[in-house]
Amino acid sequence: MNNQLLDIRNLSVRFDTDEGAFNAVDDISLHIDRGESVGLVGESGCGKSVTALAITRLIPSPPGHIESGQVIFEEHDLLRLKPSALRNIRGASISMIFQEPHSALSPLHRIGRQMIEAIRFHREMSKTAAWEYARDWLSKVGIADAEERMYAYPFQLSGGMQQRIMIAMALMLSPALVIADEPTTALDVTTQAQIFSLIRDMKENDASLLLITHDMGVVWEMCDRVVVMYASRIVEYGALNDIFVNPVHPYTIGLLKAIPTLAVGGKGRLAAIPGQVPSPLAYPKGCNFQDRCEHVSDRCLQDNPALFEINTGHAAACVLADKGDITPAG
């Protein structure tokens, strides 16, 4: 049996705007195995959320459209499924925790109605049973007075409470794949721990997770493999230890050096990567990371390198990767 649950092949997503056209995602490929957690990391503007939206064809059109590629989920190409077949997969087999819950919840309907509609669309369940099931899930994600909250409209709830409701809706149908885009935004540390505990429990049922985040500490706690994106492209991927112990791409190294530590005697300022992610309307010729990289050479100004395999399951897109000239972060 094929162990791959999701296989993204050469995916490109293009946006046509008044300022010009650009690829927010440029020819990326990645896979997720059954029961595996993959962290997709990088700064804002690197294409992580667009990748997530493309998986279930939620790219707003216009201005965006999926230009090319395949998204194979359980042997079906999601990019070529009929809308009716795709609706049966969304929410049940693949669920998504959006970064901005206020835009994902309907402002016109009570929380209970929205949850019950999702449950009954995918499960044969009476309204009473669905109500009780939804209420119990609100309690699981740490919402007090769950029965009362079922009658509330989203605008009557805080952003953190809306986020917890989105998490409950994403997990309550036991999906095979959960796509979590910064799932604990606006939540306090205690609730974050509770949510990640729920996601771990979900994994015990052989579910898979695509975790989109910029928090490398969360990646270390939650993920089996890591995919690093920068300026619309994947620049490194590997098993957890490959990335944290032996990072190769200068961008990955920069992300790891920027992790705060509580080491006794630590001094100096927090390390930071100079500059910022370039505008997708003005990517430079050559490597997109060139103006922020301390290893830049003339070749970097000309070539946008493909991924070079360092060892099995570990690859980096850098002209120095095949020479071993980059010193890993220590």
Describe this protein's structure.
With 330 residues, the protein is α/β, with parallel strands linked by helices. It has a domain at 224-261 and 273-330. Helix content is 30%, strand content 24%. It contains 11 helices and 12 strands. The strands form 2 sheets. An 8-stranded mixed sheet has the order 6-7-8-3-9-10-12-11, with helices on both faces. Helix 4 crosses helix 5 and helix 5 crosses helix 7 (159-171). The longest helix is centred in the middle third of the chain and has 15 residues, at 189-203. The mean pLDDT is 88.
- State Rg: 21 Å
- Helix count, DSSP H or I runs of 4 or more residues: 11
Order of helices and strands: EEEHEEHEHHHHHEHEHEEHHEE
Order of neighbouring strands in the sheet with most strands? 6-7-8-3-9-10-12-11
Largest sheet: 8 strands, mixed
User: Mean pLDDT, as a whole number?
Assistant: 88
Strand content: 15-25%
Number of strands: 12
General form:
globular
**What fraction, in percent, of the residue positions are helical?**
25-40%
- The class by helix and strand makeup works out as alpha/beta
Termini separation (Å)? 40 Å
Secondary structure layout:
Layout: E1 4-17, E2 20-33, E3 37-41, H1 48-55, E4 64-73, E5 76-77, H2 83-89, E6 94-97, H3 101-104, H4 111-122, H5 127-140, H6 146-149, H7 159-171, E7 177-181, H8 189-203, E8 208-213, H9 216-222, E9 225-230, E10 233-239, H10 240-245, H11 250-257, E11 308-311, E12 314-316
Helix pairs in contact: 4-5, 5-7
What's the gist of this structure?
The chain is of the alpha/beta class and 330 residues long. 30% of the residues lie in helices and 24% in strands.
